[in-house]
Amino acid sequence: MPNTFDAKATLTVSGRQYEIFRLDALQAKYDIARLPFSLKILLENLLRNEDGESIRAQDVEALARWDARAEPSVEIAFTPARVIMQDFTGVPAVVDLAAMRDAMREMDGDPAKINPLAPAELVIDHSVQVDVFGSRGAFARNAELEFERNRERYAFLRWGQGAFDNFKVVPPDTGIVHQVNLEYLARVVYVDETGSSGSVPARAYPDTLVGTDSHTTMINGLGVLGWGVGGIEAEAAMLGQPMSMLIPQVLGFKLTGALHEGATATDLVLTVTEMLRSRGVVGKFVEFYGEGLARLPLADRATIGNMSPEFGSTCAIFPIDDETLNYLRFTGRSEEQVALVEAYCKEQGLWHDPAHEADYSETLSLDLSTVVPSIAGPKRPQDRIALTDAKQSFRAALPDYTDGVAGDAAQRSSTR
């Protein structure tokens, strides 16, 4: 690999060495510090994967020179660290890999060479049905029925997990794909034991992904850049193909204050959705920052990230801070991994500093103390209604219906 910018370096954490690609190798010439958190992740991705062909030195320079106010026009190639799938789109992908092995065998090649190049994780959650409920054994019985109904399917996936490298299956009695990704699979900083090109055995870099579900963006709450794609794009990413994208505009969303008691993550996300839909963020990254983040639990951040498709944005990402580390510990990640996340992000300028404001294409701000209990409606998530206004709003939304009921009742009475 060219390493045109001489960015390759070594980071030592807890006595272990990792190969990294330093963003500050570009600082003197391009002022990388001004870039939003999300674009720094993309920049590291280009630095690390520069090959002189699909990713060239001029691509790195184009992102380093990013003009916040310019319309997107420069195309780059993004290489996600991993791919996450649910069963509706994931099973066909495994079938395609199996078919490729058959084709390789017919060509007298080695079928074992057909494997995902990017780690792929398939979480089975879309096919699960609820037959039994309201009893202690409901969960176990529903899982049992699921395996009985789809025995052939699960036998195939079990074979796939054993046959392919870089492929993991999460069974249907574990949780929904976004929850499993957030609580178990996400690394925040990814460690590739085979990616190093020098004497250092492991390479560390930001965890990034694409997923076959539009709400893959829930992982943005953990500081992991990712979004939903179609099945064909996911398969291409599995096979190591970079994804073409325009360098996006980034809207900075500043949070201050703290939620009042009684205001929930739902109230907050409805308020944020209303604001972002009014502004228009289709095709843009949304990035949250500000001193209010310190008082926003990670579960609330994940709720906001999950709603990115409703905003219209490509992603809705939060930076990495102490709350991120607390959540990693809470969900059972190792202390070695937590230490690596903290050291790597601070070394690379990816750690959130509430006093620093990046150069954004545009900004919005919200004082969390102004968020009030709300409901969505009557038609769309962005049609937020304060709970105190629900009664009159309901009546205003259904005037013809209520008049019609009264008229029908009067007509029935007159015909008796």
Describe the structure.
This protein has 416 residues and is of the alpha/beta class. It has a single domain, classed as 2-Layer Sandwich (Aconitase, domain 3). The protein has 15 helices and 17 strands. The chain has helices at residues 27-30, 37-49, 57-64, 87-106, 138-149, 151-163, 177-185, 231-238, 265-279, 298-306, 308-311, 322-330, 335-347, 390-397, 399-414; strands spanning 8-13, 16-21, 75-78, 82-86, 120-123, 167-170, 189-192, 203-206, 208-211, 225-228, 243-246, 250-256, 285-289, 315-317, 362-367, 374-376, 384-386. The strands form six sheets. Strands 6-5-4-9-10 form a five-stranded parallel β-sheet, sandwiched between helices. It has a four-stranded parallel β-sheet with strand order 14-13-12-15. Strand 4, helix 4 (87-106) and strand 5 form a beta-alpha-beta unit. Helix 2 runs antiparallel to helix 3, helix 9 crosses helix 10 (298-306) and helix 12 (322-330) packs antiparallel against helix 13 (335-347). The longest helix is centred in the N-terminal third of the chain and has 20 residues, at 87-106. The protein starts with 7 loop residues before the first strand and ends with a helix.
